[in-house]
Design a protein that fits this description.
about 625 residues, 5-stranded antiparallel beta sheet, elongated, alpha+beta, 6-stranded mixed beta sheet
Length: about 625
């Protein structure tokens, strides 16, 4: 009985093993024939050619309808490896495209390398060479029938009508492996926005791809559309963009900053629309197109003055005396001072052995004349009394954090949220910052330099321009944005939301009066006009070399159309470069053109050089 039981048991084991093996084979066959794409692609590639049709990318215009970016035909050479199979005359092929045999061999290996081309399949079209011109394509087309497995894909490349606004517009280039991994819309050889609004508005600009299904015969020759094109899908063009940029204002700004390192940002206060955004040095966007892009980009990246850097949103600087306006607003709103409070200034702020210098002017001064003359002492005393006020604040830490809350409400310390990639946040310190730096032992005198826009405070030129727009609006701002309209859809609500600051409305009236006095009889006299009222504030930020020249202003005073910031590295006093450049920019926008005398001044500033030709920075 025991023997029979053992035999019976072994029979079940053997049967089980056999069944298991059969199941494994079935699963494997199912995987290979049903689940695997390889057989499907192989079968499809024998009968069909799925030809992707790329949409026209949306065009870009300025606020006045001037065309800035459009599309021009270009051609990509595609290859299906399963059809090519080394059957072509490589020498003849290379002659037709004007390439070397070494380049051909290298490119074919790169296509097969899945680490560089993760979407590779020998049954589908792969990019061999991109962006041939009409002339290059016509030469190749005559001989294309000799090169089985190679096809031409019609594409378009970006073209620029002008050489301005490169940092705003950005550019388009071939997708990277990470782009493909992050969005399954893209395949190797596709193009994507890499910088500027081309990147930020990529999904609006790119449109939707189409597909044309072509039928092959047994020899792989195209016989026409499959099912008369019933399964074809037409491409959908991308959305056109209308920028808020005034290209004439932008062009003037780029002229004025030639040979200088810095930024100009202008905003329409009532909407938050950016009227111009100049970063210098800049570059010609026409050079960042086609097959030359990679080489040109490398040259720019290695340039000592970093022309690819958009200093308007990526440069962080001490704001200098332009920051005093925020202090006056805070001290007045917190009750630290009244409009009539006066502080003495004997060529500076003196307190317990600490001295912060100041230029000569009448003393004592109250808020409005202190703003007009840019008195260091007045604003240092204001911060000293705020941080030391134990009747109002329990500790210096509490006072410091309330001070910071005011600054954050004015748009500092965090990104404003402009519709451009790469914006920096700057720096507004809080009590924890100073507790860590000074191990809890600090007071108003320790940090007094922040009252005049020095020390740890860092802003972007965009944030300074936004501060000016906020003052022009008497206490609120809209998130700055460079796109005014997206075809067929509303602008994001983010750019329509009003941001109200913590400062009281009446406090802005005194700061506006102080900025008006700066133009009529103070540090901004060079911006005065007879036909409209300008309000302004200079800044001179200390630096290891020459000081930075800063200006912010708006006009007209009671119905502001433009708020502007000018930042010129190593430009000296604010009145040296910031004020005259800002005045010319406001005139151009408000009047629509420069007067003959202003044009002469613009030419003079255009030819001035700062930093260029000196030691690399």
């Amino acid at each position: 009985m025991e023997k029979e039981y053992g035999l019976e048991y072994r029979k079940f084991v053997i049967a089980g093993v056999a069944i298991f093996i059969v199941i494994v084979y079935i699963i494997r066959l199912f995987t290979l024939q049903i689940m695997s794409e390889d057989y499907k692609k192989n079968a499809d590639s024998n009968a069909f050619l799925k030809k992707v049709e790329y949409p026209a990318r949306g065009v870009i215009s300025d606020r006045n309808g001037n065309l800035l970016v459009y599309n021009q035909n270009a051609y990509d050479i595609m290859v299906v490896m399963n059809e090519e199979k080394g059957r072509i005359d490589t020498l003849e092929f290379c002659k037709a495209l004007g390439i070397t045999k070494e380049y051909y061999a290298k490119r074919m290996e790169e296509i097969k390398d899945r680490s560089k081309n993760p979407g590779y399949s020998r049954f589908t079209q792969q990019l061999f060479m991109s962006q041939l011109t009409e002339k290059e394509f016509s030469v190749f087309q005559e001989k294309m029938y000799r090169f089985p497995g190679f096809y031409v894909q019609r594409r378009s490349v970006r073209q620029y009508t002008m050489s301005y606004a490169a940092h705003v517009l950005g550019d388009v280039a071939e997708v990277s492996p990470s782009d493909i991994e992050n969005d399954d819309y893209y395949q190797p050889g596709d193009y994507i926005g890499k910088l500027g609004i081309e990147k930020y508005y990529e999904k609006d600009l790119r449109g939707e791809k189409g597909v044309q299904i072509l039928l092959r015969d047994a020899r792989g020759r195209i016989q026409g559309s499959y099912m008369n094109g019933q399964l074809d899908r037409k491409p959908k063009a991308g959305r056109d963009l209308t920028l808020s940029i005034d290209i004439k204002l932008q062009a003037l700004g780029e002229r004025l900053l030639e040979g200088k390192i810095g930024s100009i940002v202008a905003i329409e206060p009532s909407t938050g629309e950016v009227l111009c955004m100049v970063s210098s040095p800049s570059y010609d966007p026409k050079l960042m197109t086609g097959r030359q892009r990679s080489k040109v980009q490398t040259q720019y990246m290695n340039h000592p003055w970093r022309p690819l850097l958009n200093r308007s949103i990526m440069g962080v600087y001490p704001p200098g005396s332009t920051f005093k306006t925020t202090q006056g607003l805070t001290f007045l709103s917190e009750g630290i001072i009244t409009p009539s409070t006066s502080f003495a200034c004997h060529h500076g702020f003196y307190c317990k052995g600490l001295h912060v210098g100041c230029h000569g002017h009448a003393s004592p001064v109250s808020l409005v004349p202190a703003t007009g003359t840019s008195c260091n002492a007045f604003f240092c005393w204001g911060l000293y009394y705020m941080l030391g006020n134990r009747k109002k604040y329990k500790s210096v830490q509490e006072a410091m954090d309330i001070w910071r809350d005011y600054m954050v409400s004015m748009g500092f310390g965090y990104k404003l949220g402009i519709d451009l990639p790469g914006e920096k946040r700057g720096l507004i310190p809080n009590s924890k910052y100073y507790d860590k730096a000074y191990k809890g032992s600090w007071n108003g005198l320790t940090v007094i330099s922040i009252a005049i826009g020095q020390g740890e405070v860092l802003l972007t030129p965009l944030q300074i321009a936004n501060l000016c727009a906020t003052i022009a609006n008497r206490g609120y701002y809209y998130t700055p944005h460079v796109v005014r309209k997206v075809q067929g859809k509303p602008l994001d609500n983010t750019f329509r939301e009003k941001h109200v600051t913590k400062a009281q409305r009446h406090a802005y009236d005194y700061i506006v009066a102080g900025m008006r006095r700066a133009v009529t009889s103070g540090t901004c006299k060079g911006a005065e006009r007879a036909d409209y009222e300008v309000c302004g504030k200079t800044g001179t930020a200390q630096n290891h070399g020459h000081d930075h020249s800063i200006f912010m202003g708006f006009a007209p005073m009671d119905n502001p159309r433009i708020a502007i910031s000018v930042y010129v590295e190593n430009g000296g006093f604010g009145a040296d470069y910031g004020v005259p450049i800002g005045a010319l920019m406001m005139e151009q926008y408000i009047k629509g053109k420069l007067s003959p005398d202003s044009e002469k001044r613009a030419t003079d500033f255009q030819h001035r050089r700062i930093g260029y030709g000196t030691a690399d920075r």
